[in-house]
Amino acid sequence: MKNILRKITIVCLILMVGITMLSPADKTASAQSSEVAGALAVMNVSSDMITWQPVVDYASLTLVVVMPSGAARTSTFDSGNMPILSVAELPGDGLYSYELRMSPVLDEQTQAALQAVADDPQARSRLEEDLIAAGVLPTITSQSGSFSILSGQFVIPVEEKIDETSPLETQTTGGNMINDILHYDDVIVTGSFCVGFDCVNGESFGFDTIILKENNLRIFFNDTSTTSSFPTNNWRITANDSVNGGANYFSIDDADRGVSPFKIEAGAPANSLYVEDYGRIGLGTSTPATELHIIDGWDTIVRLEQDSSSGLSPQTWDVIGNEIGFYIRDVTHGSKLPFRIQPNTPSNTLYLKSSGYVGMGTSSPAYPLEVETTGKNSEIVAQRTDGASAVLSAITNTVQIGSITNHPIEVVIDQTPVMTVTGEGKMTLQGASGAAGAFSAISNTVQIGSITDNDVQWVVNNAPVMTLNEDGQMTLQSPSGGAIAGVSAATNTAQIGSFSDHDVEMVVNDTVVMTMTSAGNMTLQGALSEYSDVNVKENFAAVDSAAVLNRLNDIPITTWNYISDDADTQHMGPMAQDFYAAFELGADDRHIASLDVNGVSLAAIQALNKLSADQKAQIDELSAENISLKEKVDDLESRLNTLEQAAGSSADNQSTSFPVWSMVIALLVVGMMQTAPVVYCKIKKN
Questions:
Q1: Tens of pLDDT along 392-442?
Q2: How many Cβ atoms are within 10 Å of 657's Cβ, its own excluded?
Q3: What sign has the CA pseudo-torsion 401, 402, 405, 411?
Q4: How many CB atoms lie within 10 A of CB 672?
Q5: Backbone angles phi, psi at 321, to 5 degrees
Q6: Which strands, in side-by-side order, build the sheet including 494-498?
Q7: Taking a C-beta distance cutoff of 8 angstroms, is the pair 428, 420 a contact?
């Protein structure tokens, strides 16, 4: 009798626990995941189609369906478009799982705020919290569940009815059903117990202490706290879906929010999640060697996915490790592999130092980027497979920088080429304002300068010291200022000298040998020689030196000074206008060439020399005539003396003879008077 009462008591306790832990209302609420609180859409299933009827506002919905093989299929539906899935789109029979993700509707102000903190993770986190608190961002952004295909058709989910019939209900006490048993004290069960409508008398427990046994298994944690400062959230442990075609799983559910933060699907491999006693976590291993240890027989992949539930652009990254290498994959943009490491890569192939320096081949970079090698060239190559290839190389005794293909080299500033070097040895410099310079080694010449309508400057200490413009004018100036020297090729002339108010000096062996002032005065430390080779002359014509002498006599010769000189700097000479009018020599009537002055002077000298020779001949002729006359006079005097002597003895007696000798003397005087004027006049004329 005692044994019977004991068994009845145990059965009553089991019924009490089961009734307390499980209620029909809870089973009905969990029949479909789409009907729990916080759902994004109501899932409707027919034999050939599944639709998700949204119950929230959204900018877009993303549906991810995982096939029985594990492959995933993703579709996006914009606002106003209902997610639809046809059985024809799927590979065939089996259990499928799905996740529906929402992108919220955000105004421009919120989008701008999100964009403003795009590069600041901490600010992004704070802003997300504020937006959730303000109700701008939703707290429920995803919905998950499962469905099945059987014989080519979707299995329509039908809730499995709760069988409340229990063998214990056949037991009666006085013809009445057993009532709920309430205990107002602690209950201790020293044996195992079974909870559920399918528990039977004589249940086999084996090593199980507690068995939950019926067609829908749930454990509900109902926190009845009423004080506001106490936590009140309700939780549930769920085993398997309660609908036809549902999934087999074990989950821990947030009953108040209708989400399952933890779920294990049936068939999951051994050690899918293993927490070791040192706190290390193994995924696929029961012997994790590090804080997180992942093992797989094929590519080991960790996926990092940002959806658009917070209003940001979706982006998915994969971190992959296999026998070929370590990869980072950009799944969103065509599964590109921007980062790879092959096995057995040498140490320090890429080293990022705390200073921000990057080492390649070194763990102690001393520069923002340092490439270090031993026994081979240290090279950085930028190669476009369908274009040019650039290289920066440190070889044994030289440094090389440039192109290793037949392409020009460009130096770029602000995304604009400012210098180009071609394979033909031509270097051009292009300024942002349009100026372009060139340095070119062509067949027989070297070219350097501007290839546009801009000046060419040579700069020392950031100051131009030489400038060459398009007019062919080159100027030189000290960075500290002062004189400006220049060489200019004008339309019809070439200029070289001072482009400022400073003298021009010609220096040989560091000695000034010629100085030209701004007034045009030139001083030579040596002789000036003018080119006068007969082989470079033509159009010869004889010169009338006497006419040159006569015209020279008519040119005024004065003393004067240049206006640019001091008044006491005197010069002597003719005016260019008078000289040109007299001789028409030189380029114009404002200059006198020293070579022309020398020619006029030499012609005048020749004329004077000829005149002097003619005068000498005339003088010699007159001298001869004078000698002849003198001889005649002497003869006449001698004859006169003879006559006078002859006449002297008879002077007293022959006084009548006076007229004779007197007449002779008179004739002599008259003859001399006739001859002397002739000589005098000739000399005077010459």
A1: 898 888 988 888 888 888 888 877 777 888 877 788 777 666 677 776 766
A2: 14
A3: positive
A4: 14
A5: -135, 130
A6: 456-460, 463-468, 474-477, 484-489, 494-498
A7: yes
Rounded distance between C-alpha atoms, residue 200 and residue 204, angstroms: 9
243: DSSP letter:
B
DSSP string spanning 107-170? -HHHHHHHHHTTT-HHHHHHHHHHHHHTTSS-S--EEEEEEEEETTEEPPP-BPPP----GGGG
Q: What is the DSSP string of 301-327?
A: EEEEEE-STTSSPPEEEEEEE-SS-EE
What are the residues facing 466 on neighbouring strands?
Answer: 458, 476
Q: Tokens for 638, please give them.
A: 């001698």
**Helix, strand counts (H, E) of the chain:** 8, 44
CA 13/CA 264 separation, integer angstroms = 31
What is the C-alpha separation between 350 and 565, in angstroms, rounded?
A: 76
Once rounded to an integer, what is the mean pLDDT over residues 563-592?
Answer: 89
Q: At a CB cut-off of 8 Å and minimum separation 6, what does 684 contact?
A: none
What 3-state DSSP class applies to 241?
coil
pTM: 0.53
Checking if the pLDDT of 78 tops 50, the result is yes
The angle at the Cα of 97, spanning 96 to 102, to the nearest 5 degrees, equals 140
Beta strands 351-352 and 336-341, pairing class: unpaired
Tell me the C-alpha distance between 546 and 552, whole Å: 10
Nearest alpha carbon to residue 10 among 194, 151, 160? 194
| Segments of 266-309 assigned E as strands | 274-275, 281-283, 292-294, 300-306
SS (H, E, C) 529-569: CCCCCHHHCCCCCCCCHHHHHHHHHCCCCEEECCCCCCCCC
**510 and 496 in contact (C-beta within 8 Å)?**
no
pLDDT band of residue 459 (cuts 50, 70, 90) is confident
Alpha-carbon distance of 291 to 274, in angstroms, equals 11
